[in-house]
TrEMBL record, chains A, B, C:
Belongs to the plant dirigent protein family. GO terms for cellular component: apoplast. Keywords: Apoplast, Secreted, Signal. Homodimer. Pfam families: Dirigent. Its main location: secreted. Residues 1-28 form the signal peptide. This is Dirigent protein. It is found in: Secreted, Extracellular space, Apoplast. Dirigent proteins impart stereoselectivity on the phenoxy radical-coupling reaction, yielding optically active lignans from two molecules of coniferyl alcohol in the biosynthesis of lignans, flavonolignans, and alkaloids and thus plays a central role in plant secondary metabolism. GO terms for biological process: phenylpropanoid biosynthetic process. The keyword Transmembrane helix does not apply. It comes from Rubroshorea leprosula. The keyword Secreted applies.
Length: 196, 196, 196
């Protein structure tokens, strides 16, 4: 009898374990382990990029600072802007209105790295310092601009977003000429830590 | 008797726990916790970088877009190319043949940042859009070129590589003059999430 | 009696589980799950950046390689240096003395991306190759320079810092003109893996 009972109770233990582990995790690092991939936090923002073009110094929030030998730093290069590297400090808003009160800043770089296709690469942070959010979220990844939505990685965070990881889905919400564009960023965090 | 039995059964529980936890994790986030450090996924690719040198516009896959005041953007700078910043959109292949059908693109930047030694730094993505792989893997790290193998970090992933983390071991597989080089990338993921 | 005993023992199991899980984790991936947010590893370093200014080629450890159309690559731009992109290979020391024996190198890039405020963004690695530390730590994040301390993300590591994640708190320890500055970096890792 004891020989049968032991494997059974081990099995029972394992089953209980499966149920309890998720709970245990939630008390420390709130990491959703669900195969359903439910985010532990979700946030949607817009950011607004106005590239310096020689005439808009006052309004510009971004500037070309690197370009290939055949291009210049005032006009985006031909052929998918290949080789243009842009630094930016853009307002972040809750809706798609450029003139809404910013809730943070998007700061970092992007560059056009597609020779045959129109594609970019981004490394940047959202920096928050308001009553609602304090801290930063860091992003990196490829941005194949012609796709309606593009996923990049949330590689870390600080403050309210301490140790965050996840996926940010980008969508070009608007663009005008080669000067203004607006990105919608749907941030889904899958690793969240509880408040200290 | 009961006083002796309790610590023993707690010990037994803990032992069972150790065995079961790994299994429990696998049902959600497939995170290998082994001290043996077995990757949960391993992939080997090659990518091929052809730097624009003023004469190879058609074949070039990369271009110098930043250089220090004493250098230019057509020829790599002297002294370990210190200060040259290169953007690239390189074909990724399964073997070391430049002319093999690409399975993806390597897109990002590298720059030579060693003044006394020959070293670089990389931030880039592998972008896949084939029947075999869909999604991206994001990398960042220092690349001390003179070492036979160099480890950088896999900082995130999307699609098939959702939330991936790990190590990529780089090896210079070939280089010709200052124009072509081929890197072998051995990707070992230690954090993998199951399919949704 | 058995009907009462079962829920009780399940509760007991769960409680034990909560106690044991942390231990279990430590045997594999040493991930501190405490809501107290105790780092599993903590390291403090200094690094020393000497920007090339046209006159200090011998001592310089960093150079401007990207700048906006209105600026040059020898003198940092006006208005918070907006648009200047700098590559560096700086000595890392244990104390705040520039002339102490370096224990590693800080290699990467930073750029000034604030148009209205003085702020920067960093992507870099600490590279160690000594008896004490071997491997690298990779960092990324926004650096609002006017704050006394700023948090960025530890996005990965290799070697002794295999798969590390955490927070690095930066502090400007000194700066002289627009040529020399020294950063104190307080690295707190919250995800550590045990040695292989």
């Amino acid at each position: 009898m004891a020989g049968v009972a032991k494997p059974l109770s081990a099995l029972l233990l394992c089953s209980l374990l499966l149920l309890c582990t998720s709970t245990a995790m939630i008390h420390g690092k709130k990491m959703r382990l669900a195969s359903s991939r439910q985010p532990c936090k979700r946030l949607v923002f817009y950011f607004h990029d106005i590239i310096y073009n020689g005439k808009n110094a006052k309004n510009a929030t971004a500037a070309i600072v690197g370009a290939p030998a055949w291009a210049n730093r005032t006009i985006l290069a031909a052929q998918g802007h290949f080789g243009d590297l842009v630094l930016f400090d853009d307002p972040v808003t809750l809706d798609n209105n450029l003139h809404s009160t910013p809730v943070g800043r998007a700061q970092g770089l992007y560059f056009y790295d597609g020779k045959d296709v129109f594609t970019a690469w981004l490394g940047f942070s959202f920096v928050f310092n308001s009553t609602e959010h304090r801290g930063s979220i860091n992003f990196a990844g490829a941005d194949p601009l012609l796709n309606k939505t593009r996923d990049i990685s949330v590689i870390g965070g600080t403050g309210d977003f301490f140790m965050a990881r996840g996926i940010a889905t980008l969508m070009t919400d608007a663009f005008e000429d080669d000067v203004y564009f607006r990105l919608r960023v749907d941030i889904k965090l899958y690793e969240c830590w509880e408040k200290a």
